[in-house]
Amino acid sequence: MRARAGAARSSVPDSADGFVAVRIAVLTVSDTRSLADDRSGDTLVARLTEAGHVLADRRIVRDDAQAIVAQLHGWIDDPHVDCIITTGGTGVTGRDVTPEAVEQVADKMIPGFGELFRWQSLAKIGTSTIQSRACACVARGTYIFALPGSTGAVKDGWDGILAQQLDARHKPCNFVELMPRLREA
What phi, psi does 107 have (nearest 5°)? Predict the structure, then answer.
């Protein structure tokens, strides 16, 4: 029996080993990419589906805070989306507005995500990691993780953090086990 993720998540795991498939929407933020050349989005989709999760939806929106916010709100309100992972728009240039969009929809920021992402990136790209504004939050019971737009950053974010934290079997704790309680008052 498949567990339903999110606020109405059942306590029944997807498999005997306790795995729970999370329904994840992927958003690429870019003025120039299309589905045909979105390597970072492709990398993220491949990793999450190989891990056994469900691709709930995938979109590309331009580097525009209001367009990003509108897409995030649509997925936050969708009962078939438990988690959103974005790629792109987390740098420091004028067009990089993904963190500002995430903050607009956030109920609670998860500062440790960005801190851990930059710490892990330091070993690979050195001090250039300081240019990343990777961030995460909870918005009306939905997790949102914003990663930089390079394939390397997507691999680092998924392999080094999200693969474990979106796996209900990861101990001592993980984001999945908290999903039923995210909307508590």
Answer: -95, -40
Is the backbone of residue 38 left (phi > 0), alpha (psi -120 to 50) or beta? beta
Q: How far apart are CA 27 and CA 54, in angstroms?
A: 14
Q: Dihedral, CA atoms, 98, 155, 21, 85, nearest 10 degrees?
A: 0
User: How far is the C-alpha of 179 from the C-alpha of 59, rounded, in Å?
Assistant: 24
Per-residue pLDDT of 162-171, as tens digits, reads 999 999 999 9
pLDDT tens readout for residues 21-70: 999 999 999 999 999 999 999 999 999 999 999 999 999 999 999 999 99
pTM of the model: 0.92
Q: Are 45 and 77 in contact (CB under 8 A)?
A: no
Closest CA to 21 of 172, 161, 134, 179: 179
Looking from the CA of 132 toward its CB, the CA atoms found within 13 Å total 30
Instruction: Tell me the per-residue pLDDT of 120-176, one tens digit each, with 9 for 90 and over.
Output: 999 999 999 999 999 999 999 999 999 999 999 999 999 999 999 999 999 999 999
Q: CB within 8 A of 72, min separation 6: which ones?
A: 27, 84, 101, 102, 105, 139, 144
